[in-house]
Amino acid sequence: MPTAVFEGRGCVLDMDEFWVSMGRRALIVTGKTSGYKSGALEDVCDVLDKNGICYCIFDSVKNNPTVENAYEAGLLAREFSADFVVGIGGGSPLDAAKAAAVYGSNPELEPYEIYDGAEDNPLPVVEIPTTAGTGSEVTQYSVLTVESRKTKVTVKGDWLFPKAAFLDPRYTKSLPPNVALHTALDAMSHAVESVLKRNNSYISEPIALGALEIIGRNLPELQNFPCDDDVRAELLHAAMLAGMAIAHTGTTIVHSMGYVFTYFKDMPHGMANGVLLPKFVEFAEKAVPEQTEKIYKALGISSSDEFACMIRNTGLEHPVVSEDEAVEFAKIAITNKNVPTAPWKVTAEEEAEIMLWR
Ligand code: NAP
Ligand code: FE
């Protein structure tokens, strides 16, 4: 893993030498509110000011950003001649920051050409998560919405790994409780999918199971969000570990089905994954029982029924998906490249069944 990870309260402010080593001009990429409400933007501005680093702020990243939205941030990186990019926010701004860094160092690159790679390496990226979910701060993925495909498509490559990630639990305190729950379920989904994927390895598996142990232990605490700093620090750490696991393995069909839910039903990313997990785990239990057993052990449970209970007990609410919708969505999701990596040979009918869990 090439990304340096710094954790703890105030870690952004303690690292003058690091910031100076990044360059003289920074583009900060964040959402409309996340940078401000979390307090992370203020800390970053303070540390950059203190070290004489100029910056400009792009604070218009939308949730589930489109390629065009990320490109806008990239145009600003070019215009401002940024030396590096700082992403602040949930997965949406973190992913947009990675893409902006590619556009920033490749002045000729058109929006959709990013999927074919680029001539020059991206500008170095520093990522500061304000949700404990996506793990994007340590992955080589930038997940962007492609309107013409009616889903999200991932830009990936080792060139996208952030240079550094700063995890400060103070930044997740302002999260709305439902976003805290959804993002925790996203991290859980990364870890579960990683353990169940065909390319799971003896390196990725202990990392994913470590994440699941922390998430399983802390999930009930989310009922009392914002909890205390220690709980939020553990969840940030777990989300980062789950990100490391998927940096090795990638995700599988829960994510590809979830992208379609997000596009058509406007479901937040983590909610979509949370709804899809129980039936997916039930199918996986039949196909690869020894792997699901490891997941149950890490979560302190013993069956797919208990797993479904665990998800229900979080109070996760989600929009109804009709049978007709599930059939239509499954037709799109089944074409995703990650379908053959699932733990069994999945059919569109099975995907529709997974989508109908309540
Ligand atoms: P998000 O879309 O980044 O944010 C969800 C909502 O939470 C937004 O309204 C955001 O506000 C708000 N928010 C974030 N932090 C906050 C804070 N500390 N206080 C108050 N509000 C805050 O959600 P996410 O679940 O973290 O990221 C989802 C995206 O990440 C999806 O596009 C998904 O596909 C992607 N993803 C990427 C990877 C990867 O490896 N790259 C992995 C999984 C998922 P603002 O709108 O103001 O920002
Ligand atoms: Fe995810």
What does this structure look like?
The protein has 358 residues and is of the alpha/beta class. It folds into two domains: 4-171, Rossmann fold; 175-355, Dehydroquinate synthase-like - alpha domain (Dehydroquinate synthase-like, alpha domain, Up-down Bundle), CATH 1.20.1090. The protein is 50% helix and 13% strand. The protein is built from 14 helices and eight strands. The strands form two sheets. It has a six-stranded parallel beta sheet with strand order 1-8-5-4-2-3, with helices on both faces. A two-stranded antiparallel ribbon has the order 6-7. Helix 4 crosses helix 5. It starts with a strand and ends with a helix. The mean pLDDT is 97. The site of fe (iii) ion has 5 residues, from helix 6.
